[in-house]
């Protein structure tokens, strides 16, 4: 479990949080679904994330060496803390500025307790602080300190202030409406004052669902008004389904146009004038455009009306000279971090200033914000000519890399966590609606993973050689390490985007006198596909191995680094017995399929020959 935890932390520094609130866009695409059921990825992630938090001091540790550089991060939401984590892990001091009394951003102040317990967020922040990341709370950037001040004081500044500015309804009488975000913030702060009994919630996104479901738990009767149909709602599907299951009323194809005070009805009731809509041609979002139906106006009376039609970033805290670049957002994005992580936008605005997260994209998922923070850290390091290795690589443990999991081909039911029923959920604001699974169940579920592509092999000769040479692939958009470029899978056949072309391949100068070998075993000369291939670079100093890179081909879907064999060689004198031992280690733990055991024996011999040169 520790190895799994360290590998997960390479790409997601807050798995206990994403294991609860991630919308799991990946699960419907899981190839296991064609066999029986998709792997319960979020359940596994949550189990590993909780394991990590329970042992935070083992995983969130100060770096072994300090760089002397100090970075500033504005905002302690998922993008901000992700960037802080990666920067700190590489030895840089990081100070996070947060305007609110506690760190966590919308994770703490906007997401309802029943979806994300606040104790989990607080434990996560404490774990990050344990690495040496400092949080300066109650400090509003733009008021208490300016971005220009931070740029003078720190080597690099990352602005990840989120999207807290609520979009207006644009209707007459809007001042009579309440803010959905403010309601959630207030309730999360402990104020459960009911704004009214019958409350209209205008919107169809995630904030609207959180507001409506929170109101229901407070004892209100929320009514969700949305101008399109359920099919076009931008909120997460499972959140919409839960709201409907809980009995919340929805009025689709309904658009408010005027809000006014009720006359002669007592109290402070609001009369909302609305118009019925019909769907027309697709708009810029690709969804059918809602079109008003003439003569369909009607009125409805509510105790309160809450707007929740979305949020947008407030770029006013940025110096004026950088706002244009921020508005362009991803269109000025640099090369992205490679690896199994969801990407979010991050940009170098100029000088030593960077921006990302919801500040650029508008409201997004926690996973996208993490990807943005990771990319921002890479851009910051790149600009300062500092080390860019954000992850520990596929050997974040014992160095065995990918292995074939034979139990994955046995039909097995997907693990299902216990969830509160709708009738139980609505009774409490703070009772977590979904329970986690045990570590043993999570482990069993992980073994259901196909490790997609594990029964196919990468036939490329050049790919094996380029990985051994530590080459990089340059496109018209970015630079990609060869190991990442050739790490495609059954669900990702190429790392190239639709608008990307390879422009050059860069091979770094190899150590003086290094022995380079490419050995390939084929059954017949006319058939050039390798049965097994090995590429190697072995460098020695004074008879002792100083560097070793050994890559196997045609035995896995991607070029397979023999990390164990490499580690065995370094620091020792090369001999026939050592080379034979390295060949055995290179295939240690391999589980050949029933009719290709012979490939393992061939691979051992080729590794030995490659080492001996």
Describe this structure in words.
The protein is α/β, with parallel strands linked by helices. It has three domains: 60-163 and 313-383, FAD/NAD(P)-binding domain (3-Layer(bba) Sandwich); 166-311, FAD/NAD(P)-binding domain, CATH 3.50.50.60; 461-612, CO dehydrogenase flavoprotein, C-terminal domain (Enolase-like, domain 1, 2-Layer Sandwich), CATH 3.30.390. A six-stranded mixed beta sheet has the order 3-2-1-4-17-16, with helices on both faces. Strands 6-14-7-8-9 form a five-stranded parallel beta sheet. Helix 1 crosses helix 3 (41-54) and helix 3 (41-54) packs across helix 16. The radius of gyration is 28 Å and the shape is elongated. The two termini are 38 Å apart.
Helix count equals: 21
Helix content: 25-40%
Strand order of the largest sheet: 3-2-1-4-17-16
- Low-pLDDT segments, ≥5 res: 330-343, 393-403
Count of beta strands: 24
SSE arrangement:
Layout: H1 2-11, H2 15-21, H3 41-54, H4 56-59, E1 70-74, H5 78-89, E2 93-98, H6 106-109, H7 118-130, E3 134-137, H8 147-153, E4 156-159, E5 165-166, E6 178-179, H9 180-188, E7 198-202, H10 206-218, E8 221-225, H11 237-245, E9 249-251, E10 254-261, E11 270-282, E12 288-292, E13 298-302, E14 304-307, E15 311-312, H12 320-328, E16 346-350, E17 353-356, H13 358-361, H14 366-383, H15 422-425, H16 439-446, H17 461-468, E18 472-475, E19 479-481, H18 482-485, E20 502-506, E21 515-521, E22 532-541, E23 544-553, E24 560-561, H19 563-569, H20 576-586, H21 597-612
Helix pairs in contact: 1-3, 2-3, 3-16, 5-14, 9-10, 19-20, 20-21
